[in-house]
Write a structure and sequence with these properties.
The chain is globular, with a radius of gyration of 26 Å. It has three domains: about 70 residues, no CATH class; about 300 residues, Aspartate Aminotransferase, domain 2, CATH 3.40.640.10; about 130 residues, Aspartate Aminotransferase, domain 1 (Alpha-Beta Complex), CATH 3.90.1150.170. With about 550 residues, the protein is an alpha/beta fold. The N and C termini lie far apart (about 80 Å). The chain has 17 helices and eleven strands. The strands form two sheets. Strands 1-7-6-5-4-2-3 form a seven-stranded mixed sheet, with helices on both faces. Bound molecules: pyridoxal-5'-phosphate. Pyridoxal-5'-phosphate binds next to helix 7.
């Protein structure tokens, strides 16, 4: 022990004090200064034309891990991450149309930073106090938005839509095989049902829940990427005849590529009648609305008054959408990704049940049920969540965004996205060698073919759907669609040409054939009709 040190404090008191002062005491000026520098860097980046700011250096990232030896300061923290901060795209450009990812809004930033400053852990009330209360508030608000009639909602924020869907699947397993949480699947074959247009996260959950991906059955869709209900009914009958346990049906409200929407009321009717016929336990009807939930903002928009002066086509879309959105009330549970079209920060996904008793099924073991009082599960989500430690960014982002952008603000943002998608469909449709593949889908995305000039894309599509085309021919057309996409990518000018993406299967498979397509998703509020006209121009120039 050194001279002058107090007993029990073997370390140099001065050094430890320095660490505490630098890293565990808020130096407001320094924090603000660095934050300001990061904001300045972002501002500078946004003036640059290129959308791919820096090339990656994976080799060194793996071969040369680094840790500074001597304690430093907050600027070292800045320096350690700065090249990666600079090299990361914030997706704020209006030319970003390639996927279901929008720019995060700044009200969400305020909420998220407030959350990070306190760093609550939502696992139990004692670690999160009013943040836990905020989660309840955010869940109830979102529940009211999507379930037209909320009986008794409950839910939690999760790491993402995949995990929210997993909760839906898990509750279904517990419903048809009570006690599976404790006993496991006990050799029973469990199946789940989705549509061809469903997100691949459903396969993830089938694998992770121990059912096996082979036991996830997908039902073909119609040309609006909506599950074919006759085929669904036949399949359900077949499964029960074979004595299978059907744990869940996951309906899609807004598929990731084409924005197809399943008929949730129709699915509910079929489940109820078939289940009754066989005298079996009802599967969970979960709705994957990860991408599509924001369309519910428009449920309350007055088409008659049309305050935003929306086009006739979009008004018609809103009327149809409302009918489909109202059907979410027939579901048992729903997935909402606020980090998609809520324009919030990651992670901001919510899993919401319509009847809170369903949450009971997620308790760790049956022995714990006596403790399942209202107070307990309100205060201690860790009793039923998949995670133990859980961030509160979701609730903070949601409440900050909803209460600053407001219902009307969200209506404007979503309606704008619909206007842009509608305009794009109309413009593409004018080109004889192009074909919009999701003309009947009602969301903010467009998937289409571009074929070489001289081809009649609409006719080719008709022939394909009616089965009047050979495999050799359609493979050649598909190759052309891909080749022209790559060609545009190679010649595009990032200063004026939007970034599009390519899907190898847009969700509708006529005759079992997966349709490749160009894809644009209108999640960025800044994207305007000029951007779209330039897309059309770039297609004409190919
Ligand atoms: C994005 C998406 C998911 C997955 O959500 P993550 O938050 O990325 O895990 C699931 N379903 C649909 C329809 C989606 O669009």
């Amino acid at each position: 022990m050194k001279k002058g040190a107090k007993e029990g404090d073997a370390m140099e008191e001065k050094d430890l004090k320095g660490l505490i002062e630098t890293f565990f005491t808020c130096n407001k000026e320094e924090v603000l200064q660095i934050f300001n520098e990061l904001l300045n860097a972002m501002e500078a980046e946004e003036t640059l034309a290129t959308v791919d700011p820096m090339s990656r250096n994976y080799e060194t990232a793996q071969s040369n891990p680094e840790i500074n030896y001597i304690p430093g300061n907050l600027k070292d923290a800045r320096d350690a991450i700065f090249p990666f901060f600079w090299g990361t795209d914030g997706w704020y450009s209006k030319y970003h149309l390639e996927n279901v990812k929008g720019p995060a809004n700044y009200a969400s930033l305020i909420g998220s930073i407030a959350c990070l400053l306190k760093n609550p852990n939502l696992c139990v009330d004692t670690y999160s106090q009013r943040s836990n209360e905020l989660e309840l508030k955010a869940i109830t608000t979102l529940a009211n938005l999507v379930f037209y009639h909320t009986r008794n909602p409950w839910g939690m924020f999760t790491m993402g839509g995949t995990i929210s869907n997993l909760y839906g699947g898990k509750i279904g397993i517990e419903k048809v095989l009570p006690g599976a949480m404790k006993t496991g699947l006990a050799g029973r074959q469990i199946v789940g049902i989705v549509s061809h247009a469903a997100h691949y996260s459903n396969e993830t959950l089938a694998g992770w829940l121990g059912m096996g991906t082979d036991n996830l059955i997908s039902i073909p869709t119609d040309d609006a990427c909506s599950m074919d209900l006759d085929l669904f009914e036949n399949e359900l009958n077949r499964l029960y005849k074979e004595n299978k346990l059907v744990a869940f049906v996951i309906a899609t409200f807004g598929s990731t590529d084409a924005f197809g929407i399943d008929d949730i009321a129709g699915i509910r009717r079929i489940i109820d009648s078939v289940v009754k016929k066989y005298g079996v336990r009802s599967p969970q009807l979960h709705v994957d609305a990860a991408a599509g939930w924001p369309l519910c903002f428009l449920n309350e928009y007055s088409v008659a008054e049309n305050a935003f002066n929306l086009s006739k086509e979009v008004l018609a879309t809103i009327t149809q959408l409302r009918e489909k959105a109202m059907n979410i009330q027939y579901a048992d549970s729903v997935t909402i990704d606020f980090h998609k079209m809520g324009w919030g920060h990651y992670p901001g996904s919510a899993f919401i049940v319509s009847n809170r008793d369903d949450i009971k099924l997620l308790l760790r073991s049956m022995e714990q049920v006596p403790y399942f009082s209202e107070a307990d599960y309100r205060h201690d989500p860790a009793l039923f969540t998949l995670e133990c430690s859980r961030p509160a960014i979701g609730p903070f982002s949601v409440m900050a965004s909803l209460n600053s952008i407001g219902l009307q603000g969200y209506q404007m943002l979503v309606a704008h996205a619909l206007e842009m998608a509608n305009y794009t469909k109309k413009q593409i449709d004018k080109l004889e060698y192009c074909k919009v593949l999701n003309a009947k889908c009602l969301g903010p995305s467009v998937v289409w073919w571009v074929l070489p000039k001289g081809r009649n894309a609409k006719e080719i599509y008709r022939d394909l759907v009616s089965g009047n085309i050979t495999e050799k021919d359609y493979k050649r057309y598909f190759y052309e669609v891909q080749r022209l996409f790559d060609k545009r990518k190679n010649v595009m000018d990032p200063k004026k040409d939007a970034r599009l993406s390519f899907t190898t299967c847009m969700g509708y498979l006529p005759g079992g054939v997966a349709l490749p397509a160009w894809k644009a998703v209108f999640f960025n509020p800044k994207t305007d009709s000029d951007v779209i006209r330039q897309i059309i121009h770039s297609i004409e120039e190919l």
